[in-house]
């Protein structure tokens, strides 16, 4: 049998309005009264009807999160961060997979689910600026590296700066022939930003950016990293370090190095990007740029709800924090 506010009020000997104030966490309730009502809530096993609460406000209680690659561990961890942050605000998350395809990103961004969601968090890959003009649907918050000169909140780390930190680490270890694997064939702003950071930091260190050490790929998975590493080695190139677009590519590259009899990091040091969990448990743990995924998820949810509640300031470009986590793939076992 479902327990109602009326049941809790009768059990606690207070008014239904008082119970409602406690359930909705209103501030103007004394600690003693809050404790009294909470004891009755716990005793009766009352659970608030969140759907009804949202509907009374003309909302659904659902936020959509649209991601390009659900199989990528980074996006899985980011989705978990968004879901946790939304749950704290009594919202649930509807997960959508775009595959990084423009037509699917357009479909999502133009509100084909507008009747069932209150807001949208979107990580676009191929979406163009004109695709986002003149939207009149639910609040939209962008995450990820693609930048648009449009009035939407955008949350991301500084990819150029983060890439420079990765290369700076390698240069500081005495590495001079540093390859980049993961430049994308065709347009890809995320890859362009990280290659730009690679070039800028090499220049700052007085080193030439050897474009022959840049390996382009069609995708960003383990197999793509392995294939890119194989192409470099088969072409007679033997860098002393590799900076990979992301961790799966770095792990794929390290597998090829192992198969070719090359040691990590003694022969070739490797740095990844995103700090996903599998990089922490390999035979050689992976040095990686670690974005603050929890902060990105929390800021995205807060931004959507602020827009929904009409309390948000002007659209913002929000920089989330990152750090470089140094492990065995660059420092060796003793250094790590």
Write a compact overview of the structure shown.
The protein is an alpha/beta fold and 336 residues long. It has twelve helices and twelve strands. It starts with a helix and ends with a helix.
Provide the fold topology.
Elements: H1 5-12, H2 16-23, H3 31-44, H4 50-56, E1 62-67, H5 73-88, E2 92-97, H6 102-109, E3 119-122, E4 140-143, E5 153-156, H7 159-172, E6 178-184, H8 189-204, E7 214-217, H9 222-234, E8 241-244, H10 247-259, E9 269-273, E10 287-291, H11 293-309, E11 317-319, E12 322-325, H12 328-335
Parallel strand pairs: 1-2, 1-3, 3-4, 4-5, 5-11, 6-7, 6-8, 8-9, 9-10
Antiparallel strand pairs: 10-12
Using brief descriptors, characterize the structure shown.
336 residues, alpha/beta, 6-stranded parallel β-sheet, 6-stranded mixed β-sheet, 12 helices, 12 strands, 42% helix
Radius of gyration: 24 Å
Summed up, the helix count is 12
Overall pLDDT metric? 89
Sequence of secondary-structure elements: HHHHEHEHEEEHEHEHEHEEHEEH
Q: What is the subunit organization of this protein? A: single chain
Major sheet size, sense and barrel closure: 6 strands, parallel
| Termini gap | 57 Å
Query: Which stretches of 5+ consecutive residues score pLDDT under 50?
Result: none
Q: What is the topology, as strand order, of the major beta sheet?
A: 2-1-3-4-5-11
The global form is elongated
Structural class: alpha/beta
Number-wise, the strands total 12
Question: Level of helix content?
Answer: 40-55%
Q: How big a fraction of the residues is strand?
A: 15-25%
